[in-house]
Amino acid sequence: MSIPQLLLCLSLSVLCISSKPTEKKDRVHHEPQLSDKAHDDAQSFDYDHDAFLGADEAKTFDQLTPEESKERLGKIVSKIDEDKDGFVTVEELKAWIKFAQKRWIYEDVERQWKGHDLNEDGLISWEEYKNATYGYIL
C-alpha cells in the first residue's frame, strides 16, 4: 500500500469516526403527562386533580363548596371501585386515571373536529382546515 493510499484510508477513517452522531436518542416511549401543572404536593394538589378528574372536570370541582365536592367525589369513587368491595386498589385507580385522560382526549378531538368542519358535512377538506387553522376567508 502506498503512502497516498494509506493517508486516504486514514483520512476517511477519521472522517467516518468524527461524523458519527454523539447525541444518543431516547428510544424509550414515555407516558404523556397527566397534567400541565407542576407536580408538587407540598404546594398544591392541582396536578392530582387534573390527573384524577380530567382538566375540565377539575375546573368544575374548583368552583364547588367542600360539601358538594365531597359528595361528587363519593360518587366517582363508587365508579372507580370496579369490584365493589368498598376499597380502591392501585390498579383500579390507574384504570380510572387512564379512562379520565382518554375521555378528555376524545372530547377534545370531537371539539377540534367540529371547529374544523366548517360546512358540517362530517368531512374536513384542506380548504376547511386552512380556514379554521390559519384564518383564511372562504
From TrEMBL:
Record-linked Gene3D superfamilies: EF-hand
Protein location: Endoplasmic reticulum membrane; Golgi apparatus; Melanosome; Sarcoplasmic reticulum lumen
Key words of the record = Calcium, Endoplasmic reticulum, Glycoprotein, Golgi apparatus, Membrane, Metal-binding, Repeat, Sarcoplasmic reticulum, Secreted, Signal
Signal peptide residues on this chain, from the entry's feature table: 1-18
- Any one Gene Ontology molecular-function term assigned to this protein's record: calcium ion binding
**GO annotations of cellular component type:** endoplasmic reticulum membrane; extracellular region; Golgi apparatus; melanosome; sarcoplasmic reticulum lumen
UniProt keyword annotation of Membrane present:
yes
Broad class of where this protein is predominantly found: endoplasmic reticulum
Task: Show where the EF-hand domain sits.
Answer: 68-103
- Which family, according to UniProt? Belongs to the CREC family.
Q: What is this protein called?
A: CALU protein
